[in-house]
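User: quick one, sequence for these C-alpha coordinates?
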Protein backbone atom coordinates (compact mmCIF):
# COMPACT_ATOMS: atom_id res chain seq x y z
CA UNK A 1 0.00 0.00 0.00
CA UNK A 2 1.24 3.49 -0.90
CA UNK A 3 1.24 5.57 2.29
CA UNK A 4 1.33 8.83 0.32
CA UNK A 5 -1.85 8.24 -1.69
CA UNK A 6 -3.86 5.47 0.03
CA UNK A 7 -6.61 5.41 0.89
CA UNK A 8 -7.49 7.83 -1.89
CA UNK A 9 -10.71 8.07 -3.85
CA UNK A 10 -11.19 10.55 -6.67
CA UNK A 11 -14.31 11.72 -8.42
CA UNK A 12 -14.39 11.01 -12.18
CA UNK A 13 -13.91 14.73 -12.85
CA UNK A 14 -10.99 15.19 -10.44
CA UNK A 15 -8.10 17.05 -12.16
CA UNK A 16 -4.91 15.02 -12.52
CA UNK A 17 -1.65 15.19 -14.48
CA UNK A 18 0.61 12.13 -14.63
CA UNK A 19 3.65 13.47 -16.49
CA UNK A 20 5.68 16.48 -15.30
CA UNK A 21 9.31 17.50 -14.80
CA UNK A 22 11.31 19.66 -12.38
CA UNK A 23 14.88 20.93 -12.23
CA UNK A 24 15.82 17.50 -10.89
CA UNK A 25 15.94 16.60 -14.58
CA UNK A 26 15.24 19.01 -17.44
CA UNK A 27 12.30 21.00 -16.06
CA UNK A 28 12.50 24.74 -15.54
CA UNK A 29 11.03 25.01 -12.07
CA UNK A 30 12.22 23.58 -8.76
CA UNK A 31 10.00 20.98 -7.14
CA UNK A 32 8.68 23.37 -4.49
CA UNK A 33 7.53 25.87 -7.14
CA UNK A 34 5.81 23.13 -9.14
CA UNK A 35 4.05 21.78 -6.05
CA UNK A 36 2.95 25.27 -5.00
CA UNK A 37 1.50 25.84 -8.48
CA UNK A 38 -0.35 22.50 -8.49
CA UNK A 39 -1.81 23.13 -5.03
CA UNK A 40 -2.85 26.65 -5.97
CA UNK A 41 -4.53 25.38 -9.16
CA UNK A 42 -6.46 22.67 -7.31
CA UNK A 43 -5.00 19.47 -8.76
CA UNK A 44 -6.26 16.36 -6.96
CA UNK A 45 -3.44 13.96 -7.88
CA UNK A 46 -0.24 14.21 -9.92
CA UNK A 47 2.91 12.30 -10.84
CA UNK A 48 6.29 14.02 -11.10
CA UNK A 49 8.25 11.94 -13.60
CA UNK A 50 11.74 13.42 -13.80
CA UNK A 51 13.97 11.77 -16.37
CA UNK A 52 16.00 8.83 -15.05
CA UNK A 53 15.70 9.94 -11.40
CA UNK A 54 14.33 7.73 -8.66
CA UNK A 55 16.50 9.16 -5.88
CA UNK A 56 14.43 12.35 -5.63
CA UNK A 57 10.94 10.82 -5.77
CA UNK A 58 10.23 10.63 -2.05
CA UNK A 59 11.70 14.10 -1.46
CA UNK A 60 9.13 15.51 -3.90
CA UNK A 61 6.31 13.42 -2.49
CA UNK A 62 7.02 14.37 1.11
CA UNK A 63 7.08 18.03 0.12
CA UNK A 64 3.74 17.66 -1.64
CA UNK A 65 2.24 15.64 1.23
CA UNK A 66 3.05 18.49 3.62
CA UNK A 67 0.82 20.68 1.45
CA UNK A 68 -1.96 18.15 1.04
CA UNK A 69 -1.23 17.08 -2.54
CA UNK A 70 -0.99 13.33 -3.29
CA UNK A 71 1.87 12.48 -5.69
CA UNK A 72 2.23 9.06 -7.29
CA UNK A 73 5.58 7.35 -7.63
CA UNK A 74 6.77 7.98 -11.17
CA UNK A 75 9.80 8.33 -13.42
CA UNK A 76 10.34 8.77 -17.16
CA UNK A 77 13.11 6.44 -18.29
CA UNK A 78 15.11 7.17 -21.45
CA UNK A 79 15.55 3.89 -23.29
CA UNK A 80 16.12 2.42 -26.74
CA UNK A 81 14.58 -0.50 -28.60
CA UNK A 82 16.15 -1.71 -31.86
CA UNK A 83 17.67 1.73 -32.54
CA UNK A 84 14.35 3.44 -31.78
CA UNK A 85 14.16 5.96 -28.94
CA UNK A 86 11.63 4.87 -26.34
CA UNK A 87 10.71 7.02 -23.36
CA UNK A 88 8.92 4.98 -20.72
CA UNK A 89 6.67 6.22 -17.95
CA UNK A 90 7.01 3.97 -14.92
CA UNK A 91 4.60 4.06 -11.99
CA UNK A 92 3.86 2.21 -8.78
CA UNK A 93 7.27 0.83 -7.74
CA UNK A 94 9.06 1.33 -4.42
CA UNK A 95 11.59 4.11 -5.15
CA UNK A 96 13.83 3.01 -2.29
CA UNK A 97 14.32 -0.58 -3.41
CA UNK A 98 13.52 -0.51 -7.13
CA UNK A 99 15.80 -2.32 -9.53
CA UNK A 100 15.62 0.80 -11.69
CA UNK A 101 18.38 2.16 -9.48
CA UNK A 102 20.72 -0.46 -10.92
CA UNK A 103 19.62 0.33 -14.48
CA UNK A 104 20.21 4.05 -13.96
CA UNK A 105 23.58 3.46 -12.27
CA UNK A 106 24.76 1.31 -15.19
CA UNK A 107 23.80 3.99 -17.73
CA UNK A 108 25.56 6.70 -15.72
CA UNK A 109 28.69 4.56 -15.47
CA UNK A 110 28.78 4.03 -19.24
CA UNK A 111 28.10 7.72 -19.87
CA UNK A 112 30.94 8.74 -17.58
CA UNK A 113 33.33 6.34 -19.28
CA UNK A 114 32.41 7.78 -22.65
CA UNK A 115 32.76 11.36 -21.38
CA UNK A 116 36.31 10.62 -20.28
CA UNK A 117 37.13 8.90 -23.57
CA UNK A 118 35.78 11.83 -25.60
CA UNK A 119 37.72 14.27 -23.41
CA UNK A 120 40.93 12.37 -24.07
CA UNK A 121 40.19 12.27 -27.80
CA UNK A 122 39.65 16.04 -27.84
CA UNK A 123 43.00 16.57 -26.13
CA UNK A 124 44.74 14.31 -28.64
CA UNK A 125 43.24 16.45 -31.41
CA UNK A 126 44.76 19.60 -29.95
CA UNK A 127 41.96 20.97 -27.79
CA UNK A 128 43.23 22.44 -24.53
CA UNK A 129 41.14 23.09 -21.43
CA UNK A 130 43.29 24.96 -18.86
CA UNK A 131 40.18 26.00 -16.87
CA UNK A 132 38.75 22.47 -16.58
CA UNK A 133 39.46 22.15 -12.84
CA UNK A 134 37.73 25.47 -12.16
CA UNK A 135 34.77 24.99 -14.49
CA UNK A 136 34.09 21.39 -13.45
CA UNK A 137 34.86 21.77 -9.75
CA UNK A 138 31.49 20.27 -8.82
CA UNK A 139 32.44 17.01 -10.55
CA UNK A 140 36.01 16.85 -9.32
CA UNK A 141 37.49 18.72 -12.25
CA UNK A 142 36.71 15.94 -14.72
CA UNK A 143 33.96 15.60 -17.34
CA UNK A 144 31.34 13.09 -16.22
CA UNK A 145 28.67 13.62 -18.84
CA UNK A 146 28.09 15.03 -22.30
CA UNK A 147 27.24 18.52 -21.14
CA UNK A 148 30.54 18.81 -19.24
CA UNK A 149 32.57 18.44 -22.44
CA UNK A 150 30.20 20.74 -24.30
CA UNK A 151 30.55 23.32 -21.52
CA UNK A 152 34.35 23.14 -21.75
CA UNK A 153 34.29 23.62 -25.52
CA UNK A 154 32.06 26.68 -25.27
CA UNK A 155 33.89 28.26 -22.33
CA UNK A 156 37.27 27.83 -24.01
CA UNK A 157 36.08 29.39 -27.25
CA UNK A 158 36.07 26.29 -29.43
CA UNK A 159 32.32 26.42 -30.01
CA UNK A 160 30.00 29.45 -30.10
CA UNK A 161 26.94 27.53 -28.96
CA UNK A 162 25.52 24.17 -27.92
CA UNK A 163 24.78 22.86 -31.47
CA UNK A 164 28.36 23.42 -32.59
CA UNK A 165 29.71 21.88 -29.38
CA UNK A 166 27.59 18.78 -29.99
CA UNK A 167 28.90 18.56 -33.54
CA UNK A 168 32.50 18.58 -32.27
CA UNK A 169 31.65 15.95 -29.65
CA UNK A 170 30.04 13.65 -32.21
CA UNK A 171 33.17 13.93 -34.36
CA UNK A 172 35.16 12.87 -31.28
CA UNK A 173 33.01 9.77 -30.74
CA UNK A 174 30.16 11.00 -28.57
CA UNK A 175 27.07 8.78 -28.86
CA UNK A 176 23.81 8.63 -26.96
CA UNK A 177 23.81 6.02 -24.21
CA UNK A 178 20.49 4.89 -22.79
CA UNK A 179 19.08 1.85 -21.04
CA UNK A 180 17.55 -0.96 -23.06
CA UNK A 181 13.75 -0.95 -23.11
CA UNK A 182 13.53 -4.66 -22.33
CA UNK A 183 15.84 -4.36 -19.32
CA UNK A 184 13.98 -1.32 -18.04
CA UNK A 185 10.52 -2.86 -18.26
CA UNK A 186 11.74 -6.03 -16.58
CA UNK A 187 13.19 -3.98 -13.72
CA UNK A 188 9.91 -2.07 -13.32
CA UNK A 189 7.84 -5.24 -13.25
CA UNK A 190 10.17 -6.97 -10.80
CA UNK A 191 9.83 -3.86 -8.62
CA UNK A 192 6.03 -4.11 -8.63
CA UNK A 193 5.37 -1.27 -11.07
CA UNK A 194 3.92 -0.71 -14.52
CA UNK A 195 5.50 0.67 -17.70
CA UNK A 196 3.86 2.73 -20.45
CA UNK A 197 5.34 4.23 -23.63
CA UNK A 198 5.47 8.02 -23.20
CA UNK A 199 4.18 10.36 -25.94
CA UNK A 200 4.17 7.65 -28.65
CA UNK A 201 2.70 10.11 -31.15
CA UNK A 202 5.42 12.73 -30.80
CA UNK A 203 6.94 13.37 -34.22
CA UNK A 204 9.78 15.80 -33.54
CA UNK A 205 13.39 15.12 -34.40
CA UNK A 206 14.97 12.74 -31.92
CA UNK A 207 11.68 11.02 -31.07
CA UNK A 208 10.24 7.83 -32.51
CA UNK A 209 6.67 7.94 -33.77
CA UNK A 210 4.93 4.77 -32.61
CA UNK A 211 2.11 3.95 -35.00
CA UNK A 212 0.03 0.87 -34.25
CA UNK A 213 2.26 -1.38 -36.38
CA UNK A 214 5.38 -0.35 -34.44
CA UNK A 215 3.51 -0.72 -31.15
CA UNK A 216 2.61 -4.26 -32.20
CA UNK A 217 6.25 -5.00 -33.00
CA UNK A 218 7.49 -3.66 -29.67
CA UNK A 219 4.83 -5.43 -27.65
CA UNK A 220 5.67 -8.73 -29.35
CA UNK A 221 9.03 -8.55 -27.55
CA UNK A 222 8.46 -6.29 -24.55
CA UNK A 223 5.54 -6.73 -22.10
CA UNK A 224 4.51 -3.09 -21.92
CA UNK A 225 1.47 -2.30 -19.79
CA UNK A 226 0.13 0.57 -21.88
CA UNK A 227 0.76 3.90 -23.56
CA UNK A 228 0.37 7.59 -22.82
CA UNK A 229 -2.68 8.38 -24.92
CA UNK A 230 -3.37 11.99 -23.89
CA UNK A 231 -0.41 14.30 -24.51
CA UNK A 232 -0.37 17.90 -25.80
CA UNK A 233 1.60 16.87 -28.90
CA UNK A 234 -0.99 14.26 -29.89
CA UNK A 235 -3.58 15.36 -32.45
CA UNK A 236 -7.25 14.48 -31.86
CA UNK A 237 -6.95 11.86 -34.61
CA UNK A 238 -3.88 10.34 -32.95
CA UNK A 239 -5.64 10.20 -29.60
CA UNK A 240 -8.63 8.43 -31.16
CA UNK A 241 -6.31 5.91 -32.80
CA UNK A 242 -4.52 5.19 -29.53
CA UNK A 243 -7.81 4.92 -27.62
CA UNK A 244 -8.98 2.26 -30.05
CA UNK A 245 -5.64 0.49 -29.69
CA UNK A 246 -5.60 0.33 -25.88
CA UNK A 247 -9.22 -0.82 -25.83
CA UNK A 248 -8.52 -3.54 -28.40
CA UNK A 249 -5.50 -4.87 -26.50
CA UNK A 250 -6.76 -4.22 -22.95
CA UNK A 251 -3.89 -1.85 -22.10
CA UNK A 252 -3.53 0.87 -19.50
CA UNK A 253 -3.53 4.51 -20.62
CA UNK A 254 -2.11 7.62 -19.04
CA UNK A 255 -2.78 11.34 -19.33
CA UNK A 256 0.06 13.83 -19.07
CA UNK A 257 1.09 17.37 -19.96
CA UNK A 258 4.84 16.60 -20.08
CA UNK A 259 5.12 19.98 -18.37
CA UNK A 260 8.56 21.53 -18.08
CA UNK A 261 7.35 24.73 -16.47
CA UNK A 262 7.36 27.27 -19.27
CA UNK A 263 4.83 28.75 -21.68
CA UNK A 264 3.25 26.03 -23.75
CA UNK A 265 4.41 23.27 -21.39
CA UNK A 266 2.34 23.93 -18.29
CA UNK A 267 0.39 21.26 -16.31
CA UNK A 268 -2.95 20.20 -17.75
CA UNK A 269 -6.07 19.22 -15.83
CA UNK A 270 -7.11 15.84 -17.23
CA UNK A 271 -10.19 14.09 -15.83
CA UNK A 272 -9.30 11.20 -13.55
CA UNK A 273 -11.84 8.96 -15.29
CA UNK A 274 -9.69 8.94 -18.45
CA UNK A 275 -6.96 6.97 -16.64
CA UNK A 276 -9.17 5.12 -14.19
CA UNK A 277 -7.77 1.65 -14.97
CA UNK A 278 -4.18 2.83 -14.44
CA UNK A 279 -5.11 4.65 -11.24
CA UNK A 280 -6.97 1.68 -9.81
CA UNK A 281 -4.00 -0.53 -10.68
CA UNK A 282 -1.96 1.86 -8.54
CA UNK A 283 -4.41 1.72 -5.63
CA UNK A 284 -6.42 4.88 -6.34
CA UNK A 285 -10.19 4.52 -6.62
CA UNK A 286 -12.06 6.57 -9.22
CA UNK A 287 -15.81 7.08 -9.02
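Assistant:
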Amino acid sequence: MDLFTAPLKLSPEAPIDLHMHTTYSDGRWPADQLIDYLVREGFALVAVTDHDRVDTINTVRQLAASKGLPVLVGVEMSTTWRNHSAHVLCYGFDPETTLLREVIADVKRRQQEQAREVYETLQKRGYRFPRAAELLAASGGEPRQLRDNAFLLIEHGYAPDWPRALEILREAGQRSIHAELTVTVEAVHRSGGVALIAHPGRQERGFTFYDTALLDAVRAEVPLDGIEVYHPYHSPETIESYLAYVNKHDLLLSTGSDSHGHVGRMPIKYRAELSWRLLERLGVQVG
